[in-house]
Amino acid sequence: MGLNNTPTGERLHIGFFGLRNVGKSSLVNAITNQELSVVSGVKGTTTDPVKKSMELLPLGPVVIIDTPGFDDEGELGQKRVDKTKSILRNCDIAILVTEAQRELNNIEEKLVSIFKERNIPFIIVKNKSDLESKKFENKDNIVYTSASLKIGIEELKNKIGNLTNHNKQEIHYVADLIKEKDIVVLVTPIDSAAPKGRMIMPQQLAIRDIIDSGAIAIVTKETELEETLNTMKKQIALVITDSQVFEYVNKVVPKEIPLTSFSILMARYKGFLDTAIKGAKKIDDLKENSKILISEGCTHHRQCDDIGTVKLPNWLKKYTNLKKLEFEWTSGMGFPDDLSKFDLVIHCGGCMLNQNEMKYRMQEAIDQHVSFTNYGVAIAYMKGILDRSIKIISY
User: Fold this and answer.
1) Which of 137, 138, 110, 147 is nearest to 36 (CA)?
2) Most buried residue, 97, 208, 351, 387, by most Cβ within 10 Å?
3) Which class is domain 272-386?
4) What is 176-264's CATH topology?
5) How far apart, in whole angstroms, are the C-alpha atoms of residue 159 and residue 154?
6) Which alpha helices (DSSP H) does the chain contain, by range?
7) pLDDT, tens digit, 9 for 90 and up, residues 333-349
8) CATH 3.40.50.300 fits 3-167, yes or no
């Protein structure tokens, strides 16, 4: 996608961590060249994570996150520390801000341990270097800065850029499944939950990926799909549909034309398709009073025919022929730590969450021996079309 239109979930997430009053907010302001965070000499000025989506040269589209001090105190302080820990779930790069005059203390060493445990690339920034008379030399993953004098800022940005390039993996949404000049039909029913006049993120990702590949994207509603197929003179390479009309589209699209869904492609894109397929098959093991968590990564006004709260529960009850299934719902960042009471987690595609957050949620389920799938994979399985919808995908 164009840099200015890159969705938050697809941007590089850079988190700034450390103790109170080491200059995290000042450093964030120096790097972004704007007053993103409030700065003062009082400990604990930053009380909640501050996020800013922006273009940061030479990195491109990023989300900068300034966090409260990891040494905050009291009951409220502990809640702030817990919030800071949750930010680590979706960080691509962690910046530990400390002071040039001293070695890391126990709390800072704990942060480094968390970075390593979660495989988060990190840089240690020794800030306030201007308060020392001796000259400091950057080495390995350590950078000396003075946020107040804007010393070492470009060096830090270059180190972040080097980490980014070193860890960058090219991930395609659909481009690797098609070739130049292919015709791809996208079936996009008007979703009542989507803001008026806008398409949902997976549809945007597909269109962008297709046209960047030199292929041809044709977008239609399910009500015009049959006419669209009948009028196409060239063989269609692929049909991608919204999961909510999967069953209907499966009947309309000839068997020789590959068919999949936005949600299945999103599971592959976010790195949990294998897990989602295994999780969907566990629907067969549900019993009376089984507990199911249905989780969405974003928040929106739920409609009367909402897929998460209405359609999915009805499809599950019909498929399992069970009189009673127990459901709970979460949205946004409210994903529970304790999943042990659930038999199954059905997540949305996670288009508004980055890959790190989705993998964290998946791993939490796996570690607690709870099956994990997503909307589209579960729907395809219950409708008997999962095998067809993953046939085009090599994984």
Assistant:
1) 147
2) 97
3) alpha beta
4) Rossmann fold (3.40.50)
5) 9
6) 24-32, 74-87, 106-117, 153-167, 201-212, 225-231, 246-252, 262-270, 273-281, 312-320, 355-367, 375-382, 386-390
7) 789 989 999 999 999 98
8) yes
